[in-house]
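Morning - pyridoxal-5'-phosphate inputs below, output right after.
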Amino acid sequence: MAYSFSHMVHSMHAKDVKLLMKQSSGKDMISFAGGMPNNDLFPLKEIEDIFHALPPDLKKLCFQYGPTAGYPPLIKALKSYLEKKSLPVEENKILITTGSLQAISIITQEFVNKGDIILTEKPCFVGALTVFETYGAKIIGIPVDENGIVIDELKAVLKKLPKKPKFLYVTPNFHNPAGIIYSLERKNELLETLAGKGILLLEDDAYSDLYFEQGDKHFKLPMKALNKSDVDVIYTGSFSKILGPGFRLGYMLASPDIFDKAETIKQALDACTSNFCQILAQQFLAQGALENYLVFLRKEYRMRKDLMIQSLEKHMPEGVDWHEPKGGFYIWVKLPAGIRSKNVFRESVKKGVVFVTGRTFDPKGKGDRFLRLSFANVPKNEIDKGIGILAEALKKTMTKRDKFNTIS
Ligand SMILES: Cc1ncc(COP(=O)(O)O)c(C=O)c1O
């Protein structure tokens, strides 16, 4: 266990995250920035009914502290939920966390000292980058292609490194921001590459329930479930995308040794996650309400994704590329050569459309040829208008580039 807060280090991505949170909820804007569900999708009635129906003793318990590891009935409900994902719950332990970002933060605190190396994907979830930077890690990004992290690049980096990285952080299912899902083959190759190297794998699985087609369900098998070698995999999950981020509920599944230290760190951070939220979520799971809600969400997000893909096809100029996601929240758009997403943003925000620039997700804060569009948060009837405005902003940026090129 490593790091004290007094040594915390500046994070270059923290500013991006603050801006992102602000833009995501900006009024009078069409926002493709928000990586969160639309407010109209939340299960208000179900949660209201659950609270009303709680016996008085449980209502009182909602207001109370609870065990650091989590509310025991929620841990039990999670066990069977994770077992259905083929995860090895018996030989591991569950820690309920205040959002899965807290789980990522705890693992970083447990293993990382200033100057230690963390490997990530490139691009990478910016919340995790901020955590790693805050603890003073040296972050090395490995590119992803449409099937996952590029194994040859990973091997080349591993060969060159001056010291062993503390862990590799990956989001194999419905990646934020790249929108991809790892192929089964790539997941196995990754596990084989790490086998015997003593490098932890931190597997972030915040989106795997949000596939669009029933037939794609099998893709999302976690690596922690596939792992037959000696790779130590720490698995994290979240209720944020399947119930609501306001619950601030996440969890980790880790070996008993890793769990023990993580529990101590959590105790020092916030003693326990809100009992209120844990009890409501446990009832939601126990009543079988989650599955019905997921069926509804998958349909909603699929419609939004379809609308966005249609609009991109309709409005975007030649030379713009994207990968159609099979689940999750995001479309990762590649701009024509020489166009920076920062400049497109400058034009589109003037017309009331926001998104997140590619460099936000680059461990080095560079690579700005991409932009991330989220279809989860935007009302369906604004998608086509918003993509139309974005396409105009892009065309304007391209004209400026061409003019500049002619002059110079
Ligand atoms: C890949 C990924 N992991 C983790 C999180 C954090 O979720 P939570 O709200 O559970 O902290 C997010 C949120 O956007 C995410 O995209």
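Note: DSSP finds 14 helices and 14 strands in the chain.

O.
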